[in-house]
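B., you asked whether I could sanity-check this one before it goes into the benchmark set. Here's the sequence:
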Amino acid sequence: MKFGLSMFGLGPRHYARVAQAAEAAGFDSVWLPDHVVFPETIPATYPYDASGVPGMDSSVGVFDPWVILAAVAQATTTILMGTAVYILPLRHPIIAGRALVTLDHLSNGRVLLGAGVGWLEPEFEIMGEDFTKRGKRMDETIPLLRRMWTEPTIEHHGEFFDMPPFKFNPKPRKGTIPILIGGDSPAALRRAGRLGDGWLEIGLHSLEELSGRLAKVKAARSEAGLPEAPFDVTLIMRPKDMALTDELVRQLEDLGVGRIIVGQVAKATGGITVDTACEWAAEFGRETISRYG
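And here's what the prediction gave me:
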């Protein structure tokens, strides 16, 4: 089992140091969240909590994850860097592809694109994009990104993007950049199976629920003729999820989960500091990661 570290709660200048501590502790990857902009009031439509209320409000600072991860790339040597999750339909594919390839070259091929369609409708309205068509836009974007990263000349004529022949260089250092699809809606599960190099599950309510969703992903892969292709299943654990015991890790491995993303919980007083984040990563490495090395 591999373990990833979700980085949050600090200013962007601190994450390179936290990533260094995570790398030293044995984490295989670090992950950043993504939003472009918040409306004045965030509606209670968050899909990963029964209340619909996300664990943030509109006063939270929003930073570009690829810029922060560029600093992480320069401070580390082996740890992978990803997004959980990047709202891909809010970006033009050439802009997104260029940012990803730039980080890919800075990091010598250590980039993972965790991508989702987003859930915050006002964010799409502010950006001038149609919230109801975000899934179709993402379905068009993913194959286009892969073509940009692998083909010498690209021409594309689709519902959302119409591009005459063009060159996209440089290409990724290791041939392509893995794309992990986040989300647990029926459409997201199908998309992960058909178009993803992996699936990001956000939260763990029960093993039965996870097993059922994985079955849908696998069915979509079979329908797409990809049942034997390499596929990365990553679980993002939240504080209120099931306790991370050895037995649970074994059960997750049996289901096919290859990576668990964890994050430090802020203390009742003082919140998260760069020192406590680094100390927490080191402790998690000693007490948990070391048992699975």
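One thing to flag: The mean pLDDT is 95. Otherwise nothing jumped out at me.
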